[in-house]
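Reviewers of the previous submission asked for a worked example of the structure-prediction workflow described in the proposal, so we include one complete record here. The input consisted solely of the amino acid sequence. No template or homolog information was supplied to the procedure at any stage.
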Amino acid sequence: MTSWTSNLTWRTPSLTSRTSSLTSRTSNLTSWTSNLTWRTPNLTSRTSNLTRLTSNLG
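From that input alone, the workflow returned the following structure tokens.
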């Protein structure tokens, strides 16, 4: 029983570390997604500007 308890005690920080790592990754992914969402209209706007420029040249 003591060995089991000590094993559990030893594993808990590892689990905490994994959870925190996962939280950090999730937050990174959220940030990346929001960045992508923010960039998409910008890209659309640039494409439309490029199309306008091309048609002006044509």
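The helical segments are 2-57. We consider this example representative of the routine output the project will generate in years two and three.
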